[in-house]
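Input chain follows. Return structure tokens only.
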Amino acid sequence: MDPKEVLNEVIAGLDAREAEKKAEDEKAAATRAAFDAEKASAIAEAVAAVKAEVPAWKGGFATKKLVGKNDPKSERNDAVLHWLRTGDTIAPESVGYVKSADDGFWGGEEYAKAAMQEDTSSEGGFLVPIDFFDQIIQRRNELSIVRKAGARVISTSRDSIQVPVEGTATTTFVSTAEEAASNQNEPVLDPITVLVPKWTKNIRISNELLADQAANLDSFIAADLAQKMAMTENRYVMVGTGSAQHLGIFTTDAAYAPVEYALTSDNLNGALTFANLITGAYGLASEYRDQASFFMHSLSEGLLRGLISTSMPLFPAGSAASGQAIKLSQLLDRPVYNQRNIEQTSDVADSDDVVTYPVCLGDMSFYALVERSGLEVVRNPWLYQATDQTGIFAKFRQGGAPLMGEAFVLFRAIINTS
């Protein structure tokens, strides 16, 4: 077939399809117009039926008409303002207002003035904004009990540090006879290696929130990051495993072997006893005891304070004992620090309980808290630009380890696992 004829047939076919489409569109438009007309008629009938049933609409709406002498526009405005300010619908003659005798607005039986109120939006409630306190209330978080207890803070520019400590102590001087050889006795030094891992946190905030918020969001985030750094310190200095984290004072290993005592009467599964706590506390050498502090869960402290003798609580939490003031934050005249990640002890063992270390007494100046850097916070508005978010990146590098096992005492007891 001739190409020209083929082209003409194709064009003719397209014209026919276009004509069909146009006819279909016109038919649809006509159908839609008929539907809209039918809908409008139904709505009008429904409105008329409602008006017929509502007495206030029979004969139309009543209007509040205020007129003054000669009915000038300015006087009408003054009349409206007078009514808004005073609620007086009868304008005083002294300012030149008169009322229309046949106007129900002026005090007839059908007159009713709608009161505006703030409980209903349509009556003006939306004009009263909800008040807003522009400070974010933070939860009460623990600060660094580790530093407060006197941990030895060491700065480094490396990813680890070796701290030389005395291994085997030298002996005392030896009495030596005339012309006898001097006593040879050197100290043995052992290095304690402390790794300094990196700790990170990422917060994403939409740019709309940053732009529109009316509270103290920036300072709230800054304070929250600082508090979470302190909580991280507290947790891992207490119970860290030493693998990519601090070695905690409640975690023993080959290099850290603190003195151990039992809190319970039969060394494992009996009840907590006052005598065992005293024995363990004095098991810590006196050279460490003067600067030592207790570390335990708050519930464990409650159980210890609850031990009762015939005369008085053995560990008073009140204001006086034997005429001397006793601080709630002390046991046996030593500071007490509570940390939520320390295991909780139980008063009496059950069949499924296990033995662990719920209480530690130690001198934290023999714990090395090693910092590579302090808390660093970076604001990045570009990384999450596809989702219109700003990233807050926070990090610090820190590790830690006990330096001297004999500076700490761990108390064995049972914990309830049921």
